[in-house]
Write a structure and sequence with these properties.
Elements lengths: L3 E4 L4 E4 L8 E4 L3 E13 H14 L7 E7 L6 H18 L10 E7 L8 E10 L8 E7 L20 H22 L8 E5 L5 H9 L9 E3 L1 E2 L8 E6 L2 E4 L1
Parallel strand pairs: 4-13, 5-6, 9-10
Antiparallel strand pairs: 1-2, 2-3, 3-8, 4-7, 5-7, 6-11, 8-12, 9-12
Helix pairs in contact: 3-4
């Protein structure tokens, strides 16, 4: 089971995962998570500034920032992804979002196949706010592609690399949805708590919907399909999920 650690400065707990992002976050009692999408994607630096200004405007510290959804121009090589993540983490450190162990905020970072942004950009973000309803629960699970854990390189870890046959796509989907279930379980949630399921792929998913999504309860709130690729070369299928009561466009 993944290790979950509290982040009191942000009002949430998180799954320890990688240096650049966590496996998922959940609001602690007394807080709830809200989700905001930008009306148009904002370049990374501009997006960080806008998020910080938005949080200040609602009386929240930058440490309330707990999740984000990024859009990148094209898939990264392993080395390119590491370089991008180092730059991303530097800005997070400036916000005070790097505790001693792990990076608390979770993330999805995908590459639109058509009309991609010119530079890595913010599409949406999530943050915590105080809640009088201590029984209310909310969470965000980070996006996961079809790569097994372990190792600094994605080479050799990708499920059915280079194979987009119906059988391969089903295997990839099962792996990724299993990762979502593991992360939700670690945070104390299940498909019954999900309000939004998002899939990122440019390949056919209709044969997967009934058995792999609907029957396991992964589409109770519908499914958002983004015609986009996961962030690293060789990956074909990614999913993220969240359970929040408040969503807005800014």
């Amino acid at each position: 089971m993944p290790t979950v650690q509290p982040f009191p400065a942000g009002g949430y707990r998180f799954i320890i995962h990688q240096f650049q992002y966590s496996g998922g976050v959940a609001a602690e009692p007394g807080f709830r998570i809200e989700h905001a999408r930008f009306a148009r994607p904002l370049p990374l630096a501009e997006g960080f500034d806008a998020i910080e200004a938005y949080l200040a405007g609602i009386g929240r510290s930058p440490t309330a920032f707990c999740a984000c959804e990024l859009r990148s121009p094209t898939q990264f090589s392993d080395a390119g992804f590491v370089a991008f993540n180092r730059h991303y983490v530097e800005r997070l450190a400036a916000l005070g979002n790097l505790p001693r162990r792990g990076q608390p905020g979770c993330r999805s970072n995908v590459c639109p196949e058509i009309d991609p942004p010119a530079t890595p950009s913010f599409y949406a973000f999530s943050y915590t706010v105080p809640s009088e309803n201590r029984a209310a629960r909310s969470f965000v699970a980070a996006g996961s592609g079809e790569a097994r854990e372990g190792g600094s390189s994605y080479e050799g870890r990708i499920i059915r690399r280079g194979d987009q046959s119906p059988e391969a796509m089903r295997e990839k989907a099962c792996f990724v949805l299993g990762a979502m279930e593991q992360r939700m379980t670690a945070l104390g949630f299940s498909w019954a708590d999900v309000t939004a399921t998002q899939v990122y792929t440019i390949f056919e998913i209709h044969p997967l919907l009934a058995d792999e999504f609907v029957r396991r309860g992964a589409m109770s709130g519908g499914l958002v399909w983004h015609f986009a690729r996961p962030p690293v070369q060789g990956l074909d299928f990614e999913v993220d999920v969240r359970g929040v009561a408040c969503e807005l466009v800014i």
